[in-house]
Design goal:
By secondary structure, this protein is mostly helical. It has one domain (8-235). It is built from twelve helices and no strands. It has helices spanning 8-17, 19-28, 34-54, 57-68, 75-84, 87-120, 127-137, 142-154, 170-175, 182-188, 192-209, 213-235. Helix 1 packs antiparallel against helix 2. It is globular and about 60 Å long. The chain starts with 7 loop residues before the first helix and ends with a helix.
């Protein structure tokens, strides 16, 4: 009897439940990257699109003005925000932002991993494989989008700020900084899912290159520590 054929759908399950098997297959099938990439982006865009059509938009505009323009601030800035914001504009700009941000982050990350691997890893690995690696290791971010939808469905009213949408963020769980402040933005950009993605990248890098887990952790975590460390230092 022939063994069941392993495909991209199996990898989508295994990257969460059994990443060792998934990483082995992903390395051999880099073109599967379109599955996690499309699902991740589509779910994120869909969650925000639903939010912008669900939220009390007049209230949202004033909430954005309140958190963006300090008391006694320039009235022209507040009016510019009010004139710019509409559900259609927010959905379109958010969708474009998510797509561009995702592709740029994956590309930069792939270049970094590819160059590091060339120096001290498996030289047979190509850039395309590292781009697929970036797409697959980011797949757990779908749970962030799902958590956002859960928050919306469980909200007591449709007056819910964007800063309240991610219950897994450091801002929601630990920091509770004033919305609109630099620390709130910093904390909102980090979440438990971020730690999951970093851990998955460390394990995947080790499996692909044969590096030890401590060495892989140093390679993978260094850019994250530098970016968020420098960002925090600037805020402080």
């Amino acid at each position: 009897m022939n063994a069941t054929r392993y495909g991209a759908f199996n990898a989508l399950v295994d990257i969460i439940a059994a990443p060792a098997k998934a990483f082995d297959e992903i390395r051999a099938h880099p073109r599967w990257l379109w599955w996690p990439l499309a699902i991740t982006v589509a779910l994120a865009v869909g969650a925000f699109a639903f939010y912008f059509t669900w939220v009390d938009f007049d209230w949202l505009i004033e909430d954005v003005v309140r958190t963006s323009v300090p008391p006694g601030g320039d009235p022209a800035t507040a009016e510019a925000i009010r004139s710019f914001m509409s559900p259609g504009v927010q959905i379109a700009s958010t969708a474009v932002g998510i797509v561009l941000f995702t592709l740029v982050v994956y590309a930069v990350q792939s270049v970094y991993l590819h160059l590091v691997n060339k120096v001290a890893g498996d030289p047979s690995l190509r850039f395309g494989q590292w781009f697929a690696f970036s797409a697959w290791t980011a797949f757990p971010t779908v749970f962030q989008s799902l958590a956002m939808l859960v928050v919306i469905f469980m909200a007591s009213s449709n007056q819910l700020g964007q800063y309240e949408l991610n219950p897994l963020s450091f801002q929601s769980l630990f920091m509770h900084a004033e919305p609109g402040t630099s620390w709130a933005t910093w904390g909102s950009s980090l979440s438990l899912v971020t730690l999951w993605v970093i851990g998955l990248m460390i394990y995947g890098f080790s499996r692909w290159t044969g590096s030890s887990l401590p060495k892989s952790a140093l390679v993978v975590a260094t850019p994250w520590v530098l970016v968020y460390g420098i960002w925090a230092a600037v805020i402080a």
